[in-house]
Amino acid sequence: MDNKDRISQNKRNDELESVLHLLNEALADDEQDLTENFEKPRYPVFFIVGNARSGTTLLYQWLASTGLFAYPSNIISRFYKAPYVGALIHKVFVHYDKFRELLGGHELTFESTLGKTKGGVSPHEFWYFWRRFFDFDEIQKLSKKDLSQVDSESFVKELAALEGAFDKPLLLKGMILNWNLEYLKQILTNAVFIHLQRDVIYNMHSLYTARKKFFGDINKWYSFKPPEYAFLKNLNVYQQLAGQVKYTNRAIVEGLEAAQGDTISINYEDFCANPRQLFLRIRELLDRKGYKIEQEYQGPNVIELRNTITDSKFDISKAKGAIKSLTVTE
């Protein structure tokens, strides 16, 4: 999403970007030396997939809070060219900081703003890391030629190192590859996908409000663009939102079927009503794969369901009409 189109509070900080670039360039060679003995992850690697604004950040935060997983934290995310170095720094600032001298509190919360979490230990989307390996244009779906140029060996090695730093199964958001899940499964055979879907109307409403919060303009596209963007961009706002949700979920379902891998599909509404059930499904899957989990569930029994229409200008009848019109035209 172009920086110039964002409202001021969402614009990238150029000074910070420059510092992070210098830091990552300086650490990149050391990262290669430190990770040379890693090859591929030993445990299943979990990827959250789904639509933007479908509850994936909440799911990510909750999964991180269970203690079952290693994941790229906000600390680690700053080291996108040296994530293993970032993981070691994370451990110094968090795991070994028993007197809370460095960052203060290390608590995870279930609050976020447009996918951004607060606190050094909170999970991060880590898109800068993904974009090191995958060269996206305006559309997120990559061609076979694009994929043939990916340094998949280094990508998998970096994930193995990140896993190794914590000796736990790795968890990441994988939505940036929603349209290339079969490829992800090919290069990472132990990948597990958690596909989250939300009631379409509320997913559309959340995307609608995200456009306003991020750009200050409901006519600007928020988040990843499916191949269907070529014709969706010429439709009205509600048809764009309906198409974004519909075609993204369809691509994910088709990609997961093609990948023929381990998949956990769940609705946002069911997850909020009974998160313990998802914990048990994950624990059972890990157990089948030889990673025994003795831990019992200690999280909330219910998570607040935020399926409410908060923006009075969002027209539900138009949203329903848009869903119907897309169904009729296919």
Structure in a nutshell:
The protein is α/β, with parallel strands linked by helices and 330 residues long.
Main traits of this protein?
330 residues; alpha/beta; Rossmann fold; 14 helices; transferase activity
Overview of this structure, please?
This is Sulfotransferase family protein. The chain has helices at 14-34, 56-65, 74-77, 83-95, 127-133, 144-148, 152-166, 181-187, 200-215, 229-232, 237-259, 268-273, 275-288, 316-329, and strands spanning 45-50, 171-173, 191-197, 262-267. The protein is of the alpha/beta class. It has one domain (14-329): Rossmann fold, CATH 3.40.50. A 4-stranded parallel sheet has the order 2-1-3-4. Helix 4 (83-95) packs parallel to helix 7 and helix 8 (181-187) packs parallel to helix 11. The longest helix is centred in the last third of the chain and has 23 residues, at 237-259. The mean pLDDT is 93.
